[in-house]
Design a protein that fits this description.
With about 60 residues, this protein is an all-alpha fold. The chain has one domain. It is flat. The chain is built from three helices and no strands. About 70% of the residues lie in helices and about 0% in strands.
Protein backbone atom coordinates (compact mmCIF):
# COMPACT_ATOMS: atom_id res chain seq x y z
CA UNK A 1 0.00 0.00 0.00
CA UNK A 2 1.71 3.21 -1.11
CA UNK A 3 1.87 6.15 1.24
CA UNK A 4 0.22 9.25 -0.18
CA UNK A 5 0.26 12.85 0.88
CA UNK A 6 -2.13 15.22 -0.80
CA UNK A 7 -0.93 18.78 -1.03
CA UNK A 8 -3.53 21.13 0.35
CA UNK A 9 -4.57 24.29 -1.37
CA UNK A 10 -1.88 26.99 -1.08
CA UNK A 11 0.32 24.69 1.04
CA UNK A 12 4.08 25.02 0.59
CA UNK A 13 5.84 21.96 -0.79
CA UNK A 14 8.25 21.96 2.15
CA UNK A 15 5.39 21.47 4.58
CA UNK A 16 3.99 18.61 2.50
CA UNK A 17 7.44 16.97 2.46
CA UNK A 18 7.60 17.35 6.21
CA UNK A 19 4.22 15.62 6.58
CA UNK A 20 5.43 12.83 4.27
CA UNK A 21 8.58 12.31 6.32
CA UNK A 22 6.59 12.17 9.56
CA UNK A 23 4.20 9.64 8.06
CA UNK A 24 7.11 7.49 6.81
CA UNK A 25 8.70 7.67 10.24
CA UNK A 26 5.49 6.60 11.99
CA UNK A 27 5.03 3.69 9.59
CA UNK A 28 8.64 2.58 10.12
CA UNK A 29 9.42 2.52 6.40
CA UNK A 30 12.76 4.31 6.64
CA UNK A 31 13.87 2.13 9.55
CA UNK A 32 13.03 -1.03 7.59
CA UNK A 33 14.86 0.15 4.48
CA UNK A 34 17.97 0.98 6.48
CA UNK A 35 17.83 -2.36 8.29
CA UNK A 36 17.51 -4.33 5.07
CA UNK A 37 20.23 -2.42 3.24
CA UNK A 38 22.80 -5.03 4.26
CA UNK A 39 22.45 -8.70 5.09
CA UNK A 40 22.47 -9.44 8.78
CA UNK A 41 23.17 -12.97 9.96
CA UNK A 42 20.46 -14.59 12.09
CA UNK A 43 22.75 -14.76 15.12
CA UNK A 44 23.40 -11.01 14.79
CA UNK A 45 19.66 -10.35 14.61
CA UNK A 46 19.11 -12.37 17.80
CA UNK A 47 22.01 -10.64 19.54
CA UNK A 48 20.69 -7.19 18.62
CA UNK A 49 17.14 -8.03 19.73
CA UNK A 50 18.40 -9.45 23.04
CA UNK A 51 20.47 -6.33 23.60
CA UNK A 52 17.45 -4.06 22.99
CA UNK A 53 15.26 -6.21 25.26
CA UNK A 54 17.83 -6.10 28.06
CA UNK A 55 18.09 -2.32 27.75
CA UNK A 56 14.32 -1.80 27.88
CA UNK A 57 14.08 -4.18 30.85
CA UNK A 58 16.78 -2.20 32.65
CA UNK A 59 14.93 1.07 31.96
CA UNK A 60 11.64 -0.39 33.22
CA UNK A 61 13.30 -1.65 36.39
CA UNK A 62 14.91 1.74 36.96
CA UNK A 63 11.77 3.82 36.49
CA UNK A 64 9.20 1.46 38.05
CA UNK A 65 10.54 2.17 41.52
Amino acid sequence: MPIEIKIRKSEPVERALRRLKKKLDREGVIRDVRAKRYYEKPCEVRRRKNKVAAFTCMLRARYDQ
